[in-house]
Amino acid sequence: MVGKYVTLVDSYVSVNEALKHASASIGRSVNIDWIDSETFNGELNQLDNFDGVLVPGGFGTRGSEGIIDTATYTLEKNIPYLGICFGFQLASIAFGRKMCSLENANSTEIIADTKNPIIDLLPEQKDETDMGGSLRLGANEIKISQNSLAHKIYNSDKISKRHRHRYEFNTKYRDEFLKNGMIFSGESDNGKRMEILEIPTHKFFLGVQFHPEFNSRPGFPEDVFKTFVTAASQN
């Protein structure tokens, strides 16, 4: 797991538990190692020692380049990757830089005047000054494209998942991403927000804007974690 707050034991407890629920459901055990994205120092080849890489949620600029580098490396090396919330956003940036040749692609949360704002503030919140109060919170419905990995995972055309974010994928880049091999297999119910990204040609490269860990229970693993752990166990 590559994240910003890995030195704090309980920072990602829900994600850790979701991984354990998923691994138990397929009769495997999971060994979780934590890598601090801020002190990564470009030593990306250490990721070769892992069966899969998960990037959990987070905010802010600190450690963001380490996560972008991580997503890029898993993309290049065909290592199973699951990005949650911030991990979804920075995977988008990694793909934009690597596969779409979008120079200086970034998030306006990280660089406000970035040349290519792959990730931008939610439109309805650009005039908000209260960061905590302006988050998009709670359960929202998501439409899932048929014949996608996401549809295979959830076996449904629509799901409801919990969210907590202020930034989102900038849809003006959607066609460019599609042309270069990334699809957005999950959208908000009104089709204006991208919720799930995937790369069909990759062993497992999936990002979700929501927080699936909150739907995982012992004996009832959340489906995206179960699929990720299965892919990692076969790597």
Automatic annotation (TrEMBL):
Pfam families in the cross-refs: GATase (PF00117)
Domain Glutamine amidotransferase: 8-229
GO biological processes: 'de novo' CTP biosynthetic process; pyrimidine nucleobase biosynthetic process
Record EC number: 6.3.4.2
Sample GO molecular function, one term: identical protein binding
TM helices/strands, residue ranges: none
Signal peptide (residue range): none
Reaction catalyzed: UTP + L-glutamine + ATP + H2O = CTP + L-glutamate + ADP + phosphate + 2 H(+)
Gene: pyrG
Descriptive protein name: CTP synthase (glutamine hydrolyzing)
Keyword annotations of the record: ATP-binding, Glutamine amidotransferase, Ligase, Nucleotide-binding, Pyrimidine biosynthesis
The protein's annotated pathway: Pyrimidine metabolism; CTP biosynthesis via de novo pathway; CTP from UDP: step 2/2
Family (UniProt): Belongs to the CTP synthase family.
